[in-house]
Description:
Inositol-1-monophosphatase, alpha+beta, magnesium, EC 3.1.3.25, metal-binding, Inositol_monophosphatase_CS
Amino acid sequence: MNDLSEILTKTIETAKTAGAFIRNESKTFDRSKTESKGLNDLVSYVDKEAEKIIVSRLKEILPEADFIAEEGTAVQSGKDYTWIIDPLDGTTNFIHGIPIFAVSIGLKHHDELVLGVVYEVNFDECFYARKGNGAFMNGKPIHVSKPATLSESLVVTGFPYSAFEKIDDYLKILRKLMETCHGLRRLGSAATDLCYVACGRAEGFFEYDLKPYDVAAGVVILSEAGGSVSDFSGGNDFLFGREILASNSHIHPEFLTEIQKIW
């Protein structure tokens, strides 16, 4: 099955199925059932089971695809298609009962991201896009906002799990943005951050120390909604380069300039 339209429909169904499982488990989740993969990097049985659900269904949808997934499913044999999955983006929020977390599923064809689905579990908001066909949320088209300067903008960001040798520069960027823009928000889910820029709730997003599964789906959605995405140098190494700058396109040059003054 290489019809992206049909693949997208089935991927949306998959994300919602995994989301329903996560939502149900959240009602009785015991925080003591949490494991640590590293400093500030948590995982639960819910992440792992949700990934099993997703991978099982995606194998049926596109058997000829590889996988990059957060909780251990890694099959990279050089196939044309690669699924890039975060079964529960915002695990720390989930563990602490904060209702902002999402299922994130992206699809890459060779070196090009072609499809993305982000399902915000507790708000029942499903963001999705396929290349060349626009971006949508729950069946309605979405588009980035119109503000053209940082002074008119709300910016979302995330905190690093590691790479703390860069934290001083990151904090300098935060201070500069606090002095410049409408405000800063830290939601705890990069997939959600990207989708909020895509639908106009925020104008910009930046973060470093990220993995491909944090951003793959959201990048497709934002790009199809009219947004711009780059790394901190203005290049395209945002998927594997562990840093991303995303915007409504209008503020991108100014946003990039301010970050490059410090980073």
